[in-house]
Design goal:
There is one protein chain. A five-stranded antiparallel β-sheet has the order 1-3-4-2-5, with no helix packed on it. 0% of the residues lie in helices and 25% in strands. The relative contact order is 0.25. It is an all-beta fold and 130 residues long. The protein is built from no helices and five strands. The N and C termini lie far apart (35 Å).
């Protein structure tokens, strides 16, 4: 869960790579995955789809025990709001969800009214942009 991601665990992030336009997404799920490289696109083994991932700086050290790097991966499941706007998360959001607009390298991200479904479903424009 995003609340369980500590600042020191993302201290070596150099950049976030988005595979989709995050302006269209109310929220993304984030997790820390153990990955074999600092920078490459990770393999994806969940239902749904990966929408982004973090690349680490060269100074990031692998785990002594496993030789892997802990990197954030951003993803969505088939029943998330972007594909099921009136479904389980029409209001509210999963525990590990944050508004992707609040994310940046070394920053955990936040829940917002948008990520919690506090705006009309399908309302793609922000106030003042008609």
């Amino acid at each position: 869960m995003s609340a369980l991601i500590a600042r020191e665990e993302i201290a070596y992030e150099a950049e976030l790579v988005w595979l989709e336009d995050i302006e269209e997404l109310d929220y993304v799920r984030q997790s820390l995955d153990r990955l074999p490289t600092r920078r490459g696109k990770p393999a994806y083994h969940r239902d749904g789809r990966m929408v982004g991932y973090a690349r680490l700086a060269p100074a990031a050290q692998p785990s002594r025990a496993s030789g892997t790097f802990r990197r954030r991966v951003f993803w969505l499941l088939p029943h998330d709001r972007d594909t099921a706007p009136t479904g389980l998360y029409a209001k509210g959001a999963p525990a590990e969800a944050v508004d992707p607009r609040t994310l940046s390298p070394r920053r955990k991200g936040q829940r917002t009214e948008r990520s919690e479904g506090e705006r009309e479903a399908g309302q793609g424009q922000r106030p003042g942009h008609h």
